[in-house]
Amino acid sequence: MSSHIASAIGHPNIALIKYWGNRDHNLRLPSNGSLSMTLGDLETVTQVTFDPSMTEDRLYLNENAISGPSLDRVSLHLDVIRTMAKLSFKAEIISHSNFPVGAGIASSASGFAALTVAAAAAAGLELNPSQLSRIARLGSGSACRSIFGGYVEWKAGTNDHNSFAETIADQDHWDLVDIIVIVEEGHKSVGSTSGHKLAESSPLQDARIHDTERRLSICRQAILQRDFLSLASIVEEDSNMMHAIMMTSRPQLLYWRPETVAIMKSIQEWRHAGMQVCFTIDAGPNVHCLCPSRYKDQVGDLLKQIPGVIRLIHSVPGGAAHLLPIKSPSID
What we know:
Blueprint: E1 5-10, E2 13-17, E3 22-24, E4 29-30, E5 34-38, E6 44-51, E7 58-61, E8 64-66, H1 69-85, E9 90-97, H2 107-122, H3 129-139, H4 143-146, E10 151-154, E11 165-169, E12 176-182, H5 192-199, H6 205-210, H7 212-225, H8 228-247, H9 258-272, E13 278-280, E14 287-292, H10 296-304, E15 311-315, E16 322-324
Helix pairs in contact: 1-2, 1-3, 2-3, 7-8
């Protein structure tokens, strides 16, 4: 049975140019390309065991047995790998994350990246990173970016085979820090999968998609040239554009809390005063505050003074999803 067990680690990522909306929901083919930074201090560790004695898949997240739609989604993803490996065994999946799940910190990205790497290895498949990225995309679109480390671009592609991510700069290229400002710990009311399906109902989505290549080009160059002011401008613009789609979808999605807006305004004021800092917000109320590492203490102290801030989570750029030595965690 040892050949049917594998463990892997995956990191979430913060999208600098956002993925929002699909042109094919089943294959998670995105409406637009995207660009992100992998977050090295946040992680999901997942162990997969394919067991011929099991009659159904079992999923444990942070010590809790999971059933219903979340288990179904994982089982469907495992089916892709089982089909590729010509394997029929059901699986036990044990997964732990060291950050809030379902709160706009890309927990599905790290989760499905780790799951893909571990399950593929446990099933005996030898896949390259591009293949792993394509498969991870089927479970969670942003997971295709978490297969890679550093600064990562997801090419929208034209079909299932050429829509995957690649690294444009490694994790040591630029010493940015992501300070995640937690204003709400719980699960968001509408998950990203549902939100992607609503995107096309916004009258603004077509214009956003049409403009994507411009934003990607500016962001890509800003990263490669380590030009923070250019990065700040385009990252905030792109984040606001995505939330404009959410707010004009039918039904409307409003993830922001009053604290979210207060943090956004404060960050812009600090930048106008000369500090290198900017914000971006995924599908949730929590704010990602980006700055060069030399500003992290100053920015962190200022953020803590804003009413409603529960806590801060810091992360530097991180590496690719990869296999880990096998452990034997027990579930009581």
